[in-house]
Specification:
Blueprint: H1 11-25, E1 29-39, E2 42-52, E3 60-65, H2 72-88, H3 93-99, E4 103-107, H4 112-117, H5 166-178, E5 184-192, E6 199-202, H6 214-227, E7 234-237, H7 248-256, E8 271-279, H8 281-287, H9 304-313, H10 315-326, H11 328-331, H12 336-350
Parallel strand pairs: 3-4, 3-5, 5-8, 6-7
Antiparallel strand pairs: 1-2, 2-4, 6-8
């Protein structure tokens, strides 16, 4: 269900399509309005939809898009996959069997005001991916790494000592409610605009240090390589490219390390693994240089056949993440020895300058 690439924003289509799919999914879906944002005389809802198991500890996959309103292709990838699932609910018993073992959370329009206006930031000029209360521990690139100079410049973090923007709080609420209490959770946040190749980034963005669940991420990377040996993604920590202040996924991942202390024990040690799909929009510009003269063309494929190809291109990844979530106990390292092995292999792959024992903890 692509949003027509020739429309400059596609905001009406996206919200209307989401509401239509919620109606079509009927009792199988559990929608929730997390907040409402005002854009001129328009009120736009930020909506999350869950499906599958309701047990708070059930393994959960979260799919997110539209954090940056200008990067509408992220919303479209999530919406296209969601549309497929909703239509499959009518006939696909294997999908129902899968959802009996897991929960799926869909939030395709995190920043509807930015999508409406065609801006990276929300209507107040705040970049939601620089808005969390996380300070980088190492130097960040000027402006790009987040700043507080004012909303007239991109990558604005928002005023110091203010609460996070409502849209950022809504995303944190969805993740906190449905993902952080699960025995295992994956999140994929879909973006575009960096490089010539699609990348899968994992935390951290505020430091070049490895995160405590490096072993689990390496195990996930390995099973993806085994199942999809000809995939086109570069799998790496975001810090391999640049560091930033205020990264929402760093904030939520750090919260996950302290969540659940008073909860009933899960069957396995909990793990929350947030990933960011950064679609390489420079490739679309390279193939169609005229997109340089269109602000939306810098972040989205504008030619129809290329647009459709991008929507197809990432479906295997989203399906893999669903299966990996439902079957996490089959590929996750279970023992301390297995975790230590995957941790060393992860350090060798992504942090060659780090001591091989660095950062290994029991989650």
């Amino acid at each position: 269900m692509p949003i027509a690439p020739e429309t400059p924003l596609g905001h009406c289509h996206a919200l209307q399509d989401l509401l239509r799919l919620i109606e079509l999914g009927g009792p199988h879906l559990r929608p929730q309005r997390l907040c409402t944002v005002q854009v001129g005389d328009q009120q736009l809802d930020v909506i999350a939809v869950s499906m599958g198991r309701t047990d708070p500890q059930a393994p959960t996959l979260g799919l997110f898009g539209g954090v940056h309103g200008l990067e509408r292709i992220g919303t479209e990838v999530v919406m296209s996959f969601f549309s497929s699932l909703v239509h499959r609910l009518k006939w696909d018993r294997s999908l129902h069997a899968q959802l009996d073992t897991m929960r799926l959370v869909i939030m395709p329009l995190v920043n509807p005001g930015g999508l409406w206006l065609g801006t990276r930031a929300n209507p107040q000029g705040i970049d939601l991916m620089r808005n969390a209360p996380v300070e980088a521990t190492e130097p960040v690139p000027f402006l790009v790494g987040g700043h507080r100079l004012g909303p007239a410049l991109p990558w604005y973090r928002g005023p110091a000592d203010h609460p996070m923007a409502p849209e950022a709080q809504a995303l944190c609420q969805a993740v906190g409610t449905d993902l952080l209490g699960a025995e295992f959770a994956l999140a994929l946040d879909c973006h575009s605009g960096f490089g010539l190749q699609d990348r899968l980034w994992f935390p951290y963005a505020h430091t070049s240090e490895p995160l405590p669940h490096l072993a689990e991420l390496h195990a996930l990377h390995r099973v993806h390589e085994q199942c999809h040996p000809h995939h086109h993604y570069i799998f790496e920590p975001q810090s391999a490219q640049y560091l930033t202040h205020g990264d929402l996924w760093d904030h939520l991942y750090r919260l996950s390390l302290t969540t659940g202390a008073d909860s009933p024990p899960a069957p396995l040690p909990s793990a929350f693994l947030p990933l960011t799909l950064e679609m390489g929009s420079w490739l679309w510009v390279k193939k169609n240089p005229r997109q340089l003269f269109n602000r939306h063309g810098m972040f989205n494929p504008l030619i129809d056949h290329r647009h459709r190809r991008v929507l197809r291109r990432h479906t295997p990844l989203l399906e893999f993440l669903m299966r990996a979530t439902a079957s996490h106990s089959q590929w996750r390292p279970q023992s301390d020895d297995q975790r230590a092995l995957h941790h060393r292999q992860g350090l060798a792959r992504w942090y060659p300058e780090q001591p091989r024992h660095k950062g290994l903890v029991r989650p």
